[in-house]
Amino acid sequence: MAGFYYVIIYYLISIKMSNKSISKIIIAGPCAAESRKQIELTAEKISALNNIIMRASIFKPRTQPGFEGLGAEGVELLIKAAEKNIAVATEVMVPEHVNIILEKIANLHKKPEFILWIGSRNQCHINQREIARIIHEKAPKSMRLMIKNQPWKDETHWIGIIEHVLSSGLSPERIILCHRGFYPDSNQNPNMFRNLPDYAMAMRIKEKTKLPMIIDPSHIGGSIENVFRVMEESLQFDFDGMMVEVHPNPKEAMTDAKQQLNFNEFERLLAIIKN
Ligand code: PEP
Ligand code: MN
């Protein structure tokens, strides 16, 4: 009889584990959409890899004035990429950005599957809630919203962003969280991460909110070597996936050139996750 129960328990555990691996959210692509060629090359690679979502920002927050992304014109590139049967992800900074995307897809018969995200610097709760409200009220149901943590370390603030978003009425099933680290305090950063992770905090918030939590090793690490280091470290925790910056030619990237992986490096990173 005991043997029978062992078989059942083993069976249940393996179903749980296989569901877990199937449902990992993997988002990869350039920091910013820069050109048609760059997006085509990336989309080709991503679509060949199976079940990976392509990122490319078209509205870029910048520390100092500079390239701010392709804007509305970039939406067309994302729509084209999605024709390769991949979902696409991009940052929206103000409610107007969501409206621009919705207008561009309004007349399409097959709606591309979008993840929009609220980035770390976007800390006006009125905008956060309004972005979520527009998605809730006007977007196709396949559109999801991802929320990154704010740049400074404060658990209550991060939970607050999630509460503001939820107060729009957007269903929790359409929300994903993403940990991108916090501004480092200069004394405790032996590997010179661009932002310091707090994996335990991310896990507490995942547990409290019951929302999927992915990790962004690119904006935490800040360099190729550190992207791999963060990925390895994060495997000790129960993240539901990752968002990583990948570029066909990282040296030529217009933003975040130091941290973007080339396609070979990306495949190496994927192998680490799958093992
Ligand atoms: C990004 O993901 O492109 C980005 C700007 O990240 P963050 O908001 O985490 O700095
Ligand atoms: Mn970036």
Kindly list the characteristics that best describe this protein.
alpha/beta, 13% strand, binds phosphoenolpyruvate, 44% helix, 8 strands
Gross morphology: globular
Query: What is the overall pLDDT average?
Result: 93
Q: What is the distance, rounded to the nearest whole angstrom, between the alpha carbons of the first and last residues?
A: 34 Å
Strand element count: 8
Rg, nearest Å: 19 Å
User: What order do the SSEs take from the amino end to the carboxyl end, as H and E?
Assistant: HEHEHEHEHEHEHEHHEH
Strand order of the largest sheet: 7-6-5-4-3-2-1-8
Low-confidence regions? 13-22
Task: Kindly estimate the percentage of residues that lie in beta strands according to DSSP.
Answer: 5-15%
Percent in helix: 40-55%
Structural class: alpha/beta
Tally of contiguous helical segments: 10
Largest sheet: 8 strands, parallel
Distinct compounds present: phosphoenolpyruvate, manganese (II) ion
Give an overview in words:
With 275 residues, this protein is of the alpha/beta class. Strands 7-6-5-4-3-2-1-8 form an 8-stranded parallel β-sheet. Helix 2 (36-49) runs parallel beside helix 3. The two termini are 34 Å apart. Helix content is 44%, strand content 13%. Bound molecules: phosphoenolpyruvate and manganese (II) ion. Phosphoenolpyruvate binds at residues 31, 57, 61, 91, 119-121, 148, 180, 216, 219.
Write the layout of secondary structure elements.
Blueprint (H helix, E strand, L loop, with lengths): L1 H21 L2 E5 L6 H14 L3 E3 L16 H11 L5 E4 L3 H11 L8 E5 L6 H14 L5 E5 L6 H12 L8 E5 L19 H11 L3 E3 L1 H5 L2 H11 L6 E5 L17 H12 L1
Parallel strand pairs: 1-2, 1-8, 2-3, 3-4, 4-5, 5-6, 6-7
Helix pairs in contact: 2-3, 3-4, 4-5, 5-6
